[in-house]
User: Fold this.
Amino acid sequence: MKALGARSAFYVGFVVGTCTLYVLLRQVGFTRDLGSGESEAHEKSLLEMVEEENKNWKKERSALFNLNHPHHTGEDGTLADTLYKHVRILCWVMTGPNNLEKKARHVKATWSRHCNIVVFISSVDDPDFPTVGLNTKEGRDQLYWKTIRAFHYVMDKHGDEADWFLKADDDTYVIVDNLRWILASHSPEDPVYFGRRFKPYVKQGYMSGGAGYVLSKEALRRFVEGFRTKVCTHTSSVEDLALGQCMEKVGVVAGDSRDTLQRETFHPFVPESHLTGTVSKTFWYWNYCYYPIVQGPQCCSDLAVSFHYVDPSHMYLLEYYTYHLRAFGYKYRYQPPEPNVIQDFNAPAPDKVETGDIEEKLGVEQQEGEKKSPELNEKL
Amino acid sequence: MMSEGSSFMKGMILGGIFCLVMSFFETFNSGTHSEGHEHLHHHLKPVSKDELEKLSESQMSDWTLQVRVYCLIMVTPKLLVHWATANDTWSKHCDKSVFYTSESSKALEAVDLQEQDEWARLRKAIKHAYENAGDLRWFFVARPTTFAIIENLKYLVLDKDPSQPFYIGHTEKSGELDYVEYDSGIVLSYEAMRRLIGMFKDEDRCPERGHALWKTPEEKQLATCLKYSGVFAENGEDAQGKGLFNKKSVSSLISDNMGQNPADAVEACCSDMAITFAGMSPSQMQVLMYGVYRLRPYGHDFHDSLTFLPPKDSDND
Assistant:
């Protein structure tokens, strides 16, 4: 009995010893794949990345100013560049301190790089990210307060530096180049705003918050003025509906953002839901859309502008699909017409001479703004 | 009690030493092996942009004709949804696409090979394709769980002569054998097909039914037969050396690259001219179809030297 016990103890010990050391070795990274080489390469690229970022962005006044419209190897981006210079979009992203690492930084690393200016709106100031804190708390009931204050903030600080003002969530993916295509046919002096149009509650309809919406400069002026004269107030926390009601009151038109084949460009869900038609017929969506709902391939324009409920890895996927992956030599079925103002755009951009209170208020900051624009004009 | 304890300890120590010795041995071995094989590894890249720009109109139209592809899609009724998706999406971009099935399905059309064995089925399909190729000179073999961007395949083989033997895809190594992974699609030139079919007659080196107790996957059997006829696997990659044939889905590849440095996730993940992805669900394939053939940023143009027109009677591309 004793001999048997000793032998099996030996075998058990052998197995335990092998397993323990195997696990230990794995942890230490003894296997060929892991090694100091890889972590070095990673560190190098981090440094390079930070340098790259500083070349492409100027962080100033809690906003990110785009210095270089992102270009892709082998592409001819002249048309996109022309639109970039003449259809200046300020993107403000609704986020919060708990979502900076989880969501907002992925927005920063992907689509927001195509905006002319980006402002991340939070309840807390963070000069590093950077985010702007707006004297609000966090939570769904604060959404309209954040929106009101955000629009006032961008009007005040950046009113002269952009023509259109886009609001997006930190789980919205926006293709800014396509937004410029739509907006190029309109003037920023028109009182108009665009997004995914919903029909209930507001006579002219209102724009879905999650799918993102964009105000012309005149629309923004009227929004701010509306609050000054108390025509508009904080009526509810349902941000998109409340804003839509204000817009109607101040005479801002709810625009039609569909492409020339009447296909939607702003989308309240991820591409999969629209393309594979998986939105249940009893869902609120079916009663909300202003225009007839199409499911399947014709749900979405080739020049889609936005999708919502996009999680971080999905953001990179959409960035890859939009800006990177392509079929060599493929002639797209949909050939979108060039916005007819492109001809005017090819003339050199005139120096903006504006009058009004806002300019005086900005004072020094305005001069700073002008220092920036020559840089952008030089690229012409 | 004491003897058991000490036996246990002796056992543990010996086990530990055994493990250490094995890992040393393994790393040493794989070290020398991979170095040696690196040199034999064939890398196939597309023609450079400069070369393309130098070509004449007539050369362009010759190449456009020469580069047409016959797709063999190996299906089974079990994969019905993927079969339907492949039928509805990427296969429409092949110049000729034929579905080869193990048994017929009432829902979808296919050449019924009435064969349950995968290797035997593949052999039959290859013979059928070669006989029905017409004047098509490039062949692409895939399961419906793969998604292929045929235009990018054409770009890869554009300047390659199909009367030479080519066997291209995502290559892997099994001992001494370099083979192309089935999941990420297999490309064969006309000459490779011809030699392969010749080798099918050799029951010793390229048997139809293996005699081993275990079944060798058909991708390796294919590689063996091709090797005997002098055709070797080549890894398809872009000008930067990134693999064009992927055995994973786009989302897995992105997640893999997100860990270290998320901002690089897109750059590092996949080539712009990727040819295949595998392991995607039918819905994900519909999204990929939209992402490749439709979704794009306005104002960014690529003036490619060749033009491929969209297929007739299709609305998702």
